[in-house]
Amino acid sequence: MNPKVEIVPVFDDNYTFVLTLPGQNRAVVVDPGDGEKVLSFLSEKGYELEAILATHHHFDHVAGIESLCDKAPVEVYCFKGEMSRVPGASRGLEDEEEIELGGMRFKVLHVPGHTSGHAVYVCGDALLSGDTLFLGGCGRLFEGSPEQMYRSLYDRILPLPDETRIFAAHEYTIHNRSFCISIETENAALQARLDEAKALREKNHPTVPGSLKTEKETNTFLRCREPAVARAVQAKAPGTPDDPVAVFAAVRAMRDVY
Ligand SMILES: [Fe+2]
Question: Does pTM top 0.85 for this prediction?
Fold first, then answer.
């Protein structure tokens, strides 16, 4: 069964996700940046905190863990390689490990690039993608090479089903898609999705979740194997080799300064 995923906006542009089975009240919280906000959401909904998952150690994803655990001591999971840096982490996970929490099954994928121990979680049709995959973008390479991030995205995330719902941890969609269209100027699907994101944000609605199918069609970071994308990147960054990893590295470098 697919989980119900609810969004708690925190800070300027972060999202914390609360997963439950439809009709049930055992909640798994992913990336609680702000404990107070998450606690009031849980009590408003009548949910019981079952467990906490962290995608990576950055402050805006983990700052609420300790205050949540003060109120309801639960297991705090992250990838084993990130454990020493996630406050309150109690259980390190292996790549490909599957755990059952609140009646839901979560599969762990270790996807280095943004941080060395970044994990994403697959639960039914939901992908909790943290700061690895955004709508129209991907995370900055703080602790990884372009090749590592490329492998994480192309070998681990792209093979998931097209209908996968992507719950990215930041509302960066308009800026990301504006950047993508600065490269893929002829991509009509991308223009339509940018317009759609603007309309959602005007009403203060999240653009998340997106679908993997849409990202394959519109997220330039996932399209570096397309010859037309390579040519568009080479027009902006002359001398970029045809190799998809090199194209990806050039896209990431351009986005860093966009
Ligand atoms: Fe981060």
Answer: yes
Give 243's pLDDT tier (boundaries 50, 70, 90): very high
- The Cα–Cα gap between 204 and 201 comes to 5
> What is the H or E stretch that residue 194 is in?
helix 188-202
175 Cα to the center of ligand 1, angstroms: 17
CATH number at residue 188: 3.60.15.10
**How many structural domains does the chain have?**
1
Q: Transcribe 141-156 into DSSP letters.
A: -SSS-HHHHHHIIIII
> Residue 225's domain spans which residues?
4-256
Q: Please give the Cα distance from 131 to 147 (Å, whole number).
A: 17
Question: 36 Cβ partners below 8 Å, 6+ apart?
Answer: 64, 67
Cα 36 to Cα 39: distance, rounded to the nearest angstrom: 5
CB 244, CB 224: distance < 8 Å: yes
Q: Using the mean position of ligand 1's atoms as its centre, give its distance from the Cα of residue 144 in Å.
A: 13
